[in-house]
Structures are given as structure tokens and as C-alpha cells.
Amino acid sequence: MRILLVDDEKELVSTLAERLQLRGIEADWVTQPEKALKLTEEKQYDIAVLDIKMPKIGGLQLKKILQKKWPNMKFIFLTGHGSEDDYRAGSAEAGAQFYLVKPVKIESLIEKMKTVLNSNT
Amino acid sequence: MAFTFKDKVSLTFWDHQEISSGPYRSRYNLRSLWKQTVMISILIVLIPLIGLTCFDYTITEEAYESEIMLRTSRFVSNIRRTIAFFLSERSFALNFIIQDNTYEELSEAKRLSYILNNLKQSLGGFTDLGVIDQTGKQHTYVGPYAFKDLYYKDAAWFKQVVHQGNYISDVFKGYRNAPHLVVAIKKELPNGGFFILRSSLDNERFNEMLSHLEISGLGDAFLVNEEGILQTPSRLFGDVLQLMPLPVPKPSVNTEVLEMKNAKTGNSLFVGYTYISDTPYILMVVMNKQEALKPWHTTRIKLISVLIATVIIILLVILIMVTYLVNNIFLADRKRAEILHHVEYSNKMASIGRMAAGVAHEINNPLAIINEKAGLIMDLFTYRDEYTKDGKLLELIKSIISSVERCAVITKRLLSFARNIDVSVFQPIRLKEFVFEVLGFLGKEAEYRSIQIDVSVAEDIDEFLSDKGKLQQIFLNLFNNSMAALYDGGRLEINAVKKNKETILITIADSGCGISEKDLKRIFEPFFTTKRNKGGTGLGLSITYNLVQELGGNISVESKVDEGTRFSILLPYKLKNGS
After folding, report:
1. ipTM confidence score
2. In terms of Cα–Cα distance, which of B505, B454, B443, B455 is closest to B480?
3. Looking at the partner chain, which of B372, B376, B416 has a beta carbon nearest the beta carbon of A83?
4. Are residue B439 and residue B572 in the same domain, yes or no?
């Protein structure tokens, strides 16, 4: 399982990647969406974990671009805003099913990744 | 809070002057508006009405009086004519006799007796007849008394008849000692001498003529002479030849009507009088003014009653109308303030929501970093053997992470609060969790003040649909109210049961200071507060009331001073699947 983490908070995204790696998960991270596009050209990722609020290109927009290119890629969203309950109501149109509110427990993130890989959409 | 019609026509606004300052203050001083409107309406309506009635009163009174005067005057004239006719008729008869007979003929007692008989039969009223020669000696006399040869030379009437030619006397007693009057005619003889024919008239006929008159108003008709001696009996002033207590009216050719006072009784009298020409008599008709004006008094009572009734009706209508209008202004004004507040309140809540969301979001990011860093440290401890034995460090990290989790709970709650305010949609609610979530906003206050909070939600209440934001505000307002009312160490009970298939009953009961009965009635009224000095706007419970209404529910309150207050909320119980 190869994961791409995209978040404008470097401190957060780098630490998260390191913790995943400690658990044997191959995780790369970037802070700019443009770099994420570049990176996907080089390697194939199973899951992209995206922050919804980022400068220039937001997580939802980035997801659309990536999905077009890599139809098999799965997505998980992170946000500092709102709760799951709320997202379930509002995220249908964005097409995302998996959504976590910061701060995130690493165990629940890994749990989500497993679920998303097994899902069909 | 709807007003009934009774509220609208009673002085409801009077005691609702509490909105006298601040942004929601009333634009009107309703008490003075009410007073002014009532005063002006009363003045505009009543002044012309009372003025008109007074005018009508005076006119009618004058009309009545002049009518009485006129009637009296006509009446007096008629009687005068009758009396004058009576006297002149007898005077003419004597005149005829004296012209028709010579002195010698009349000196014959038999002849004179014959004439007297004729007179009695034809005209009546004659008592006797006498012929008096120029020396004043009664030469011949026929009648019931023995008056022959009496000398009248010194009698006043004799002098007058000698002087005037004819004469009608006052009523007097004379030799016979009974009231009578005398008519005398003088005849000149060709030899330069004269003789007089004299007859006394029975004054009974006179009295009859006057006493048979029907005079309204306890009236009285009688004759007096110029000295004020009664010539006929009077109902009011006594018998013949007594002195009348009224002043003798001034001589006048015409019939006059005056107002006089009875010196004895003090009553006001209408007095009609006339001098009967060629006689010493004054005819007087006297009426008691009070009695004469009786019909007017009846009319006057009617007039005044109608006026009083009209004034009362007008006053009532004015009071009711003005009160109704001012109450409506009061309601409209309060509605305006309510709406103004509602808008401000919504804006304020939205701002608070936005701020809370912003704060939560801003905090969440660094919090996430702390979380990850601490997580990484813990990971390192876990995955690398060299730190595993340092139990103290591990504890510290765990404590950091648990604090981060606590912060996260707070920020999530803030975000949820903000979102609920923003969106107004029905969402599924798990009541027990929801109550605890709202209680969470109160923070540790309850703990610090040793307030015991019991929450009991019946098991059969499933997740139901309601507006989370509104429900949150309702609970928050009520909890805050209870916390303010509770003494330290008090108890707050929140209870929810299913009342029936469609309703749930939530009660929030505190053991606080309670609300007085007087305040309890007005507790849901906007701008009613007992905490104005402490910054209360008097809108908390009014908003709560409206929010419950908006949710299709109902709120009521019971309270006892020093025992506590219980709010009961009935909410529609709608399940997700539509049942």
C-alpha cells in the first residue's frame, strides 16, 4: 500500500508520513498540490490523503484532477473544519466518502485506509 | 404572546413601561399618549354637547316661564272681563232704573220693592235698594235690614258718589256687620238738587265667581283693594277683609305678571294682576312657581338624564376606543422591538458561530501538529527498544495526547455549535447524547458549585428529527437560567419521557430560588426581566418560547418561591422513517 499525503502544514504532513512509515506503510508527502501531480507521474499511489483547505488548489479540486488521471486511486480527506456528521451530509457532491477531522488518531486513519482500499468506488 | 379582546380594552400597556431605555425602547410614552387622547376626545365631544344642552336648558326654561306668564296673563284678563261685566251690568241696571223712574216713584217703598224683586229675579246679587236724598238721609229702603232713615252724609262713599255720579265700594261690613259692597248712582233733579239710588250687593256671588276657577299650580284668584285688604276669600292668604301679605302691585292699565316672594313661607310665586277700571278692585291670580313649573321640572329631569346617559356612553366609548388603539400601538411597538431584537440576535448568533468556527479551525491545525508530534514520540518509544523502559516519559506523552484529545472535543463542539446555528434543517437527534453535549457548554461550573445534574431519558425514545440548532439554543437558555437560579449545592434534573406516540415531554427542574406568582405570568413576555440591573434584556425566555413554537412544540412553567422552577417542553416526536 502506497500513500500520498498532501497538506500545506509541513510539520503535520511530514510527521504523519513518518509515523505511517514506522508502521510499515509506504508514505510520501508534499505541501503543494502541483508537486503532488508531479509525484503521481513518478510513482503509483493507492491512496491520496488530502487536506480540504489548501491555498490555490483545494483538496476537493485536487481529487477531481487526480481521479481523472488515475481512476483507480482512492481518496481520504482531512479537515480542521467540521465533523463527520456534517461531512456526510455535505460531501456527497464532492464524491468523497472518507473524511477525518484533525487532530486524527493514527489508528483511525489506518483503519480508514484499509476500508477505502476494499471499497469499490 | 397573543392578546385577548379583554386585554386590548383594558389598560394592559399601563404597567409595561419597562422598555424605557436601550436600543429596544418604546418610541411612545403610551401613558401620556393615552391621557392626552382621552382628554382631547372628551373635550372635543363633551364641550359642545354640554354647551348645547345648557343652551337648550336655558331656552326651554325661558319658554316654559314665558308660557306660564302668558297663560296667567290671559287668564287674569278673562277673569277681569267677567268681574268688570258683572259689576257694570249691575251698575247699568241701577242707572236704567234711576233714569226710568222719577224720584217720587222711587220714593215709594212699594215701587222700590217691586223693582228690587225684579232685579233679584233677572240679574241677581242685589240684597237691598235705598233712595237717599241730598241731605244724606235714606229716604226709602227695601231689604232685609231696618236701614230706613239712616244718615250717610258723612260716609266716604256718599261724598264720592256726590262727587263722581256713580260709585262702587270696597267690600266692607258697615251697619249690617257682614261683608258686602255697595253700588250707588246719583241723579240730578231739574230743581238743582239730586238724589242717590243705592244698592248693596251680596259678595257671595263675587266669591263664587272666583272660587270656581280652576287654576293650575295650586293657584289662587282673589280681589284686593288698593290698601291690600282682601275683598274675596283667598285660599292662600285668608278670608275677606284680612290684609294680604304680598305688597300691593303698582297701578297698571294692562294685565301684568310678576314674580314675588311669599313673605311668610318664602316660596316664589307668579302673580298676575290687573286693576279693574272704575272699581277699587285689583284682581290677583297667584301661583306657586314650583307647582307651575312642574312640567318643566319633569322635562328637565329627562333632559339631564339623557345628558348624563349620553356622557357616560361617550366616556365609555372613548375610553374603550383609546385604550384599544393605544394597546395596539403598544403591541405593534413591542412587535417592532421583538423583530429588531430577533434580527440582531440572529446576527449575533451567526457572528458567534463564525467566530467559534474560525477559532476552532485555527486551533485544530496546531493541535493536529501537537498530536502528530506526540504520536511520533510515542511511536518511537514503541518501535525502538532504547526508550521502552522509560515509563515516566511514556506517561508524559500519553498525558499530552489525552490533553490534545480533550481540546479536540472542545473544538469539535464549537464547530458543531456554529454549524447548527448556520443551518436550520431537521436532523436526527439522539436526545441523551444531545443533552450531555449542551451541558458540556456549561463547562465545569456545575462541578465548582457542587450542583448535582441528573439526566434521565426514557429508553423508548429513539433518534428523532428536530432542528438541532434551535433545540441547542432552547436547552442552553434553560440550563443557563437554571444555573442562575440555583444555589451552590443545588440540583438540576433533566427528564425526558414519551407522552404519547407523537409527543415527548422534557422537563428541566431546578431546586433554585423560584419565581414569584406575579412574575410567572409574564415570564415569557419579551423584555420582561428581573435582572435588568445585571444586564438582562428580558429576551432569553421569550426567544426560548418562540423557538419551541417554531419547532411545533409548547413550553410551560411552574414555580414556587424558594422551592424551584420546572420548565416543561412538549416536542413533536417525529422519526426518521416518517412515523
Report:
1. 0.82
2. B443
3. B416
4. yes
